[in-house]
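Lab manual, section 2.4: Encoding a predicted structure.

Procedure: take the sequence of the chain (311 residues), apply the prediction step described in section 2.3, and record the output as structure tokens. A sample record is shown.
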Amino acid sequence: MPPPNFKFPQPAELDITIVIVSFNTREILFRCLESIKKHTQEISYEVIVVDNASEDGTVQAANERFPEMRVIANDDNRGFSVANNQGIVASKGRKIALLNPDTLLTENSFQKIFRYLQEHPEFSILGSGIVDENNQPCPIRLWEDTPQDAAWKILGLYNPATELQRMGDMKAREALVISGCCFVICRDLFEEIGLLDENYFLYNEEDDFCRRTRQHGKRICFFPETSVQHLLGQSTHQPEHREKVIVETYKSNLYFYSKYYSCGWNAILRSLYKVTFLAGLIRSAFRHLTGCATPGADDSLRLKLKLLFSP
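Recorded output:
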């Protein structure tokens, strides 16, 4: 994990830096970049794309099509937290937005966000609203996950649809956690608490960063007065990389539990995982025997065994 006494190597010169981590999402990424160019006005900004060794020609095509934007090309997939940290270190914005590549701007969102943060310096992090492809509000968890929530998720019994009702009125207010889909951080916060925890390859990094922020007495804002459109799952549900996503999500969850939950709850959650892995192995074995198995990671006996006997 990067040390908390991080210092930027260069001063802030722009209103906002937009950091986008990409991996084999060229066309989706380009739609996102075009929407930024179209809608971002009346503020100074830069876009930094950090590419995690995409195999679809993202780097060359992005350099040709968007020469005004900076592309950092990694030789291997370094994970979401590490790649975001690369963009953060290289940034020159007073505010730094971590934006998913499978998002679209439909209005001048970053101008609204920047203006709100300037007017409300009590907030160090801001998360926008999120809408789906039909412009309907998406549920966003604005509170910390409890160990009980984690247990329901492991067992597949957690219903995220209930979060929309629990969110309450769609108005700007303080939150405990906000989504990493559009995650805007004031520059000086990084120099106070450090960068993203690089032990997370994928998932949980924004929850972790929000908890660390609040531990330092800083505040977080949910700001639904502007929303970004999220093409849910298109950046992480690539079939050829599905197995790695499953494994890294599991490892990320275990690390998060060990960091924030008690030893007792850690033991319970790890045991629940093993139960679900065993049940999944039996189910997939039956599908293979009956010729109903689906190709890929979801019915992979090798993957199920790997997870079952992993530490």
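Check your result against the sample. The chain is about 40% helix and 20% strand.
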